[in-house]
Amino acid sequence: MADVAPLTVRAPADPPVGGVVVVQEAFGMTEHLVDVVGRFAGEGFLAVAPHLFHRTGDPVLAYDDLSQVLPHFGALTADGILADVDVALDHLAGAGLGPASVGVAGFCMGGTVALVVATRRDVGAAVSFYGGGVSTGRFGFDPLVDEAPRLRAPWLGLYGDLDEGIPVDDVERLRAAAAASGQVTEVVRYPEAGHGFHCDDRADHHGPSAADAWGRTVAWFRDHLAPTG
Questions:
Q1: Nearest-CA neighbor of 27 among 56, 68, 55, 76?
Q2: Which residues lie closer than 8 Å to 81 by C-beta, 6 or more apart?
């Protein structure tokens, strides 16, 4: 077990237009998440993903066996998560990317983390894909409806109406809570999407919603991150 989070890093072909910290889903640093890191690099960002399960062996888990997820998920703590994100932020700072030029994007449990990071760290923007813990806190963080008014950066939330774990009423409460921060915020709901809709390796993948959400994510970072040149 490593004391410092390993990083998956992908660099663009040209000088980066900004940096993105990619926060993993509950199944570890899956092939899908590694692909997402590469997609951000393809859009011109220096992308870095900390491996949050490194304290429990850094496994990549099957999407169809939640029983394997729980021990690793349950071992996460707020302090440990933020320390791991700081490793990624330090990597980007070492590449010359200051906080205003760095965004954070998270998927599933990483969506929860992305919002919290934007309340606790200096970043330029954040995006959450179906981040849970809206009404009940996770990992030692407050519920997202309590965290969101403390946002320190623009935040975009992307949710599926068919997500059985995140009710639409919770999403709307989160929309109002985020707006109370005074930051630029937006919540987009996809009527035909469930949880995990962006992941093309999951049964819940919904192509049209995933494509729209990805386009919005890239545009959000291009609009809100400070230029690097």
A1: 68
A2: 52, 113, 139
CB count, 10 Å around CB of 163?
A: 21
Token representation of residue 91: 């990597």
Hey, which residues does 48 pair with through a beta bridge?
9, 21
Task: State if pTM tops 0.85.
Answer: yes
Task: Map tokens 């590449």 to a residue.
Answer: 95
Residues 6+ apart with CB under 8 A from 93: 99
pLDDT at position 118 is: 98
66: Cβ–Cβ under 8 A, 6 or more apart, which residues? none
Identify the structural domains of the chain with CATH numbers, from first to last: 7-224 (3.40.50.1820)
Q: Inter-axis angle of helices 78-94 and 109-120, to 10 degrees?
A: 70
Q: What is the pLDDT of residue 66?
A: 83
By annotation, the residues acting in catalysis are 108, 163, 195
Compute the Cα dihedral for 29, 164, 138, 118 and give only its sign: positive
For residue 43, give the DSSP letter.
T
Say how far apart CA 112 and CA 143 lie, in whole Å.
9
Distance from chain centroid for Cα 57: 21
Residue spans of the chain under pLDDT 70: 1-2, 229
